Each structure stands twice: as structure tokens, then as C-alpha cells.
């Protein structure tokens, strides 16, 4: 008994010394950092400790680190933020994206893409949010935030057409109750020729303390005017998702007669309307995105609208969406900005999406691969690209959560027993 106590004390002391000797948990060495918020676009090192970024500078001593990531030849960016996802996965028959089988569990598809934060886009409403929180948000390693659907039931197919279940007051009450998680209000899929759902979503956002509304502008017959939407119904800061969609039942931003972005779209941008990709199954068409790109009109935020349909079709994942914008002329810096600090700003969480000292250590290490890549959209139009982004490694809150090729040394951190330093010195192992 005495012997085992003594042995335990020796082990604890040794591990205590290991802990005390290292200044940093992780050092990312020699990568090309792109951190748009801090205007950094250079080869530098990053040190991480206690889940936070503690240093960004040239030549950080790797001897002070428990683990070292060799990022030479790779890009190091803030953990990516995807503000249009569907993660309320469940087993209810015919519930679609609300507790149904069309949604996907976040951790399975985020980290392998450098994504550390997702914002579920209205899969749940005020009535169903607690279930979503308990069965997905609370148990995911990915940071899961949410736009709350203006429909109390959430995205449960035909329920989305019921204006009687669009209660701005109840939606705002629940949004305020969970204000650390709910970052906005969502309207989606409404097909009536009627402004009521839009106005209720905006009203809920205002009642909840000024959080943005994200609008998926349904498919009204005849289509409702997006000029009226941008200039009369939305507030500055509200988000127009599916901005490069080209469906018959929705007005689109590029005029097909002139192949130019409609002039009022620029006015809307000046007014503060945010243009989000929300790629999805059929909500992105090159016939909209390429003419817009030629004019230099790029999205404020790049997002996937990931669900079981889109991820197995043209969309695939966050890095494929980002690679498509690279391929049509958006700069790498701007692509990263539209996937980090810009979406953070849109959801009013500017503490995210950057590599500032003191920020939570959410980091993506990306490889810009060279080769021959076919990046097609749902219409079958294909852009041949010579570059494509791939995720090498992802860090979430200071922990390595994905490492494609084992670029960290040692690959797994040594197991340590955390002890109270004073009690270890006293030999108190109880
Ligand atoms: Zn969606």
C-alpha cells in the first residue's frame, strides 16, 4: 500500500514537471498566416496555450511546445465559419431538416474542412429549439450557433407555409433566452406572394435586441421584388442567402439580358444588406456568380447550406465552395475573409474568425493543392480549376481535432495527470 502511494507520487511529480517545463501546448511553425481581421498575410508562427492564441510572431521557439505543427508550405487561417448549415439531425419520420434525416451531425463534416463554427440556418423554431440544443448543440465539439426559424416548428416541410405559426414575439423570447447560441432569425422556403413572413422575421430580430434576419426568399408566384426586399423590408445587417441562385420562382441579382448585376443590388450593399452564398442543392449557379465576379461583386460570406442532398451533389463541402470562388477570380485573401471574419461580423460575434492574441484557438491549416480539378454546379456547368483548397489540420479551442497527414509532432500529446502543484510538492497524493 505504502509502495503504491510512493509510486503514484513519483508519477505525479514527473508529469507535473512536464507540465511546468512547457510554455505552450502547440506551436504552429512556418505557415503562411492569412488573418484578414488583423491584416496579417505573411509567414509567421502561432503559439497556443490553455485553449487560446498566446503569440503570433516570427520564430517562436518550438522547444517550449508540447506539440509542434509543421505548417511549411501551408496556409494557416482562423477556423472557418459556415453560417448556413442544417444540423438538427434526428429520427422523426417526415420531419426533413427539423429533427429529421435530411440534416447532418456537425462534427462528422466540419473539422475535415477546417470549419470550427457552424450556424444552423433555421432548422429549429422557438418550439423545437430545446430539442435541437439537447441532442446536437450541447454534445458537439464543433461550436454550433443557430438562426431560429420564424416558423415555430422549424423546417418541417409544409409547416413552413403556415403564417399562423410565425410568431415574432415567441421567437424573440426564445432567441433572447438562448442569446449565446441564437444569433439571428431565419425565413425559408415560403411560397406565398406575401410580405408577412419577411416582416415577422425582421420584427423578431428587432424584438430580440437587434439580431439579423437571414432570408431564403422562397419561391413566390409571381416572384416578389428583391429590390423591395432589400430597400424596404430588410434592415442594414440583414442577410440575403442563396445570393447566386437562379431559379424561376425567385428574382435573381444578375440581369440575364445585360449579364450585369442589377444596379439596385449595389445600392442594397451600400445600405448594409449582406450577400451570403448558401450554396445548397440548387441555390448556386455559375450563370449568376461568374458575371457578378467579372464586375468584382463577390459575396460577403461563403456558406454551404450543407445537408444530405447538397453535400453529395455539386456543393460537397466548405472548401469546395471556397475553391469555386477562387476559380472565378476572388482572391485567396478575400475568400478567407468571406469564410472567417466577415461571417463573424454578420452574426455579431467578432470575437470569432480571427487569430488575435487572447482569442479562442480555433485554427485551420490549409493546403492549396495544384492539379486539375473540375468544379461544377448543379446545372452541369464546369469550371476547370488548377487549384483547390484541402484541409490538413484543424484546431478547436486549442485541441487538435483533425490531422490529415500527421503533420504534428508528437501526433498525440503525452498523457499528463493534472495535479495541484503545491500538494505534489508536499507529497500529498490524496
Ligand atoms: Zn438552408
Can you walk me through this structure?
The chain has 430 residues and is α/β, with parallel strands linked by helices. Helices cover 24% and strands 27% of the residues. It is built from 11 helices and 18 strands. The chain has helices at 2-21, 129-135, 168-177, 196-207, 226-233, 263-271, 286-294, 318-327, 332-337, 341-346, 421-425; strands at 24-35, 40-49, 52-57, 65-70, 75-78, 80-85, 115-125, 143-149, 182-187, 213-215, 239-240, 254-255, 260-261, 274-275, 363-376, 382-396, 399-403, 408-409. The strands form 3 sheets. Strands 1, 2, 3, 4, 5, 15, 16, 17 and 18 form a 9-stranded mixed sheet that branches. A 7-stranded parallel sheet has the order 6-7-8-9-10-11-14. Helix 3 (168-177) packs parallel to helix 4 (196-207). The longest helix is centred in the N-terminal third of the chain and has 20 residues, at 2-21. The protein is globular, with a radius of gyration of 23 Å. Bound molecules: zinc ion. Zinc ion binds at residues 84, 86, 121, 278, 280, 305.
Main sheet attributes: strand count, strand direction, barrel closure: 9 strands, mixed
- Large-scale geometry: globular
C-alpha Rg (nearest Å): 23 Å
Low-confidence stretches: 1-19
Mean pLDDT: 92
Distinct compounds present: zinc ion
How many beta strands in the DSSP annotation? 18
Q: What distance lies between the first and last C-alpha atoms, to the nearest angstrom?
A: 13 Å
Query: Can you count the helices?
Result: 11
Structural class: alpha/beta
Share of residues in helices: 10-25%
Helix-strand pattern, N to C?
Answer: HEEEEEEEHEHEHEHEEEHEHHHHEEEEH
Strand percentage: 25-35%
Amino acid at each position: 500500500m505504502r509502495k503504491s502511494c510512493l509510486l503514484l507520487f513519483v508519477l505525479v511529480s514527473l508529469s507535473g514537471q512536464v507540465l511546468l517545463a512547457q510554455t505552450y501546448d502547440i506551436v504552429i511553425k512556418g505557415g503562411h498566416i492569412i488573418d484578414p481581421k488583423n491584416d496579417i498575410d505573411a509567414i509567421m508562427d502561432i503559439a497556443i496555450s490553455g485553449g487560446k492564441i498566446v503569440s503570433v510572431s516570427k520564430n517562436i521557439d518550438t522547444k517550449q511546445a508540447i506539440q509542434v505543427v509543421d505548417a511549411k508550405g501551408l496556409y494557416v487561417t482562423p477556423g472557418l465559419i459556415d453560417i448556413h448549415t442544417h444540423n438538427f439531425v434526428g429520427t422523426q419520420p417526415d420531419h426533413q431538416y427539423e429533427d429529421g434525416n435530411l440534416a447532418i451531425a456537425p462534427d462528422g463534416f466540419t473539422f475535415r474542412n477546417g470549419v470550427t463554427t457552424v450556424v444552423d440556418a433555421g432548422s429549429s423554431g422557438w418550439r423545437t429549439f430545446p430539442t435541437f440544443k439537447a441532442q446536437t448543440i450541447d454534445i458537439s465539439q464543433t461550436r454550433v450557433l443557430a438562426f431560429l426559424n420564424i416558423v415555430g416548428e422549424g423546417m418541417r416541410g409544409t409547416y413552413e407555409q403556415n403564417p399562423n405559426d410565425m410568431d415574432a414575439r415567441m421567437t424573440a423570447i426564445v432567441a433572447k433566452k438562448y442569446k449565446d447560441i441564437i444569433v439571428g432569425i431565419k425565413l425559408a422556403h415560403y411560397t406565398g406572394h406575401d410580405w408577412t413572413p419577411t416582416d415577422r422575421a425582421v420584427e423578431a430580430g428587432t424584438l430580440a435586441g437587434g439580431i439579423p434576419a437571414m432570408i431564403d426568399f422562397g419561391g413566390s408566384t409571381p416572384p416578389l421584388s428583391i429590390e423591395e426586399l432589400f430597400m424596404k423590408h430588410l434592415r442594414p445587417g440583414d442577410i440575403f442567402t442563396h445570393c447566386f441562385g437562379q431559379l424561376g420562382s425567385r428574382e435573381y441579382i444578375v440581369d440575364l439580358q445585360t449579364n450585369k448585376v442589377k444596379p439596385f443590388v449595389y445600392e442594397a450593399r451600400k445600405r448594409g444588406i449582406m450577400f451570403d452564398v448558401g450554396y445548397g442543392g440548387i441555390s448556386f449557379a455559375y450563370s449568376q456568380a461568374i458575371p457578378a465576379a467579372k464586375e468584382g461583386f463577390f459575396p460577403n460570406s461563403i456558406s454551404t447550406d450543407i445537408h444530405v442532398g447538397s453535400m453529395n451533389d455539386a456543393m460537397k463541402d466548405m472548401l469546395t465552395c471556397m475553391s469555386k470562388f477562387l476559380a472565378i477570380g476572388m482572391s485567396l485573401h478575400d475568400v478567407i475573409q468571406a469564410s472567417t471574419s466577415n461571417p463573424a461580423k454578420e452574426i455579431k460575434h467578432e470575437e470569432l474568425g480571427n487569430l488575435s492574441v487572447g482569442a479562442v484557438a480555433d485554427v485551420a491549416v490549409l493546403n492549396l493543392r495544384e492539379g486539375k480539378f473540375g468544379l461544377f454546379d448543379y446545372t452541369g456547368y464546369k469550371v476547370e480549376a488548377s487549384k483547390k483548397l484541402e484541409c490538413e489540420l484543424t484546431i478547436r479551442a486549442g485541441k487538435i481535432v483533425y490531422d490529415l497527414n500527421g503533420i504534428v509532432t508528437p501526433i498525440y500529446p503525452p498523457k499528463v495527470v493534472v495535479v495541484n502543484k503545491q500538494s505534489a510538492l508536499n507529497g500529498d497524493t490524496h
